[in-house]
Amino acid sequence: MSTRESTLTIEATDVSRQKKLSLSDLEEEMTVGELVENLLDAMRMPAADTAGRPLAYHARLEREGRHLHASETVGEALESGDLLTLLPNIEAGSR
Amino acid sequence: MSEHEYRLVFYGDDGGRLDEVAIRPDWEPAIEWARFSALRSLRLPAEASGERIAIRPVWDPRAGEPSVESFVVEIESIAARASSSFPIAYFRDRAEKEAERLVEKKLLRAGDPFLYAVKALRSPPRPIDARRMKFRVVETRTPFSARESRLSSFLGGAATAGDPAEEDFPFFVPGAVLEEATALCRAAAERGVETAGILAGYLRLDRSVPEAFVEATAQIPARHTRAEKEKVIFTPETWTDVRRVLARRNRGEIPVGWYHSHPIGIWGRESAEGSEGGEKSRARADGFFSSQDRLVHRAVFPAAFHLALVVTDPGDSAPAISCYGWRRGEIARRGFHATRRRRRGCGSQLKNELPRCES
Questions:
Q1: Residue B198: closest CA among B184, B213, B212
Q2: Is A46 inside any structural domain?
Q3: pLDDT value at position B126?
Q4: Domains and their CATH numbers in chain B
Q5: How far lies B128's CA from each of A7, A36, B107, in Å?
Q6: Extended beta strands in chain A, E state
Q7: Full 3-state SS string of B65-97
Q8: How far B103 CA sits from the closest chain A CA (Å)?
Q9: Would you call B163 exposed, middle or buried from its count of C-beta atoms within 10 A (0-12, 13-18, 19+)?
Q10: What does the DSSP 8-state code read for residue A54?
Q11: Is the pLDDT of residue B131 over 70?
């Protein structure tokens, strides 16, 4: 099955809003989970906690004010001009 | 960005070679520091566009290539060029992580001292694997948007605290904000848990010096967290809530850092049942920034001007505040200035609610 690239152009940023990526040529069948994984790499953000376990990041779609589900696809969830913010589930503590 | 493959070479305390591992360095903190250093000294213009970044090893003068003495981050924009150098101590955290693997491989015993050196090998450019590219990416940076201010007006009447270092940019926090944060941390400790919050404020620039500095104006309690005795877990909703609060304040503030508590007085109570908690309390009573804390700072507060406060609460005496921030790409304990300055408007947030502001 061939994947379809879309004409979608979106932006992604992190909690601090100091970094922004402009993304284009996204595959419509790509899931949000895959998109987040690729974004972490592109934004050079830590992907694992101190014990080596994967850090959980949610993608918040600012247009709708909701966190996207990892199983949603790019084609289903996003429109051109959308802004995604990567939000981590992360702990501070004694270790 | 870097045309070299970097490797760590490990030696035992006796100088005997133990192992060599290839690493993919986390260059981001070094790049952030280099950029911020150039901006704060006006070596680069504030508009961030068309930057080219290169990372070059500086060879050890005695051993020569490929032994690395330090490395340089070079930033080139349309208008200007700037660079910052970094010692190989930059790789220390990574070396410590890799040393854990040496223990697993029985090349080192846990707790044994070790030495490490850094090598950089020229690597051919890797062909782009089109199958791995899921989309096209263009990175942009938020422009360095600092409010023009006079540093001297902040220094007057400010009390210096913590561990100041010459290359640190100044950081000003109103005493009222410190009191609020401390009170929230003490209240949480009395409930048997840690707590945290975000520092809101401004990045400022005094061109006459030149110097950039940070002013915290308020603390925003972190909501939607899961608080436990020895950790506080930030959820995605925490960050969304902070953005919502900043938008409602409508003062153009940005997150300039965060704070959280270390209620060592609670940890110390474990000593009645075992010695570990008591020993931990004694060793850390003056404040520390754990590996978990460093990860939060790296993941959420990666800009070179981002700061962290830790409120260490022994329970039976006044809490102490220590400050941490980026210095040459590493997180270091640093100083800050407590001011009496209070911005017109926002007041107490002791009740973990939206701020009540006097207009």
A1: B184
A2: yes
A3: 60
A4: 4-122 (no CATH), 147-339 (3.40.140.10)
A5: 22, 20, 37
A6: 9-13, 19-24, 56-61, 66-67, 83-93
A7: CCEEEEEEEEEECCCCEEEEEEEHHHHHHHHHH
A8: 16
A9: middle
A10: B
A11: no
Average pLDDT estimate for B271-297: 69
Instruction: Enter the pTM of the model.
Output: 0.90
Query: Rounded mean pLDDT of chain B?
Result: 87
Which amino acid is located at B173 in the chain?
A: V
Domain assignment present for residue A54? The answer is yes
A40: domain range?
9-88
Q: How many domains does chain A have?
A: 1
Residues 4-33 of A with CB under 8 A from B: 14-27, 30
B294-308 mean pLDDT? 97
Q: What is the pLDDT of residue B356?
A: 26
Can you list the alpha helix ranges (DSSP code H) found in chain B? 28-40, 92-104, 151-155, 175-190, 236-249, 264-268, 275-284, 291-300
Cα dist from B265 to B260, B281, B316, whole Å: 15, 7, 7
Please name which of B344, B333, B312 lies closest in space to residue B218, comparing C-alpha atoms: B344
| Contact residues of B toward A, CB < 8 A | 26-28, 134-142, 194, 196, 228, 230-236, 239-240, 254-255, 260, 262, 267, 280, 290-293, 295-296, 298-303, 306
Torsion of CA B309, A93, A39, B199, to 10 degrees: -20
Over range B42-48, report the average pLDDT.
78
Nearest partner of B352 among B191, B177, B219, judged by Cα: B219
Q: Looking at the domain assignment, is residue A93 inside a domain?
A: no
List the one residue out of A37, A45, A38 whose CA is nearest residue A14: A45
Q: Residue A23 is part of a domain; what is its CATH number?
A: 3.10.20.30
Q: Report d(CA B316, CA B229) in Å as an integer.
A: 17
Asked if the structure places residue A94 within a domain, the reply is no
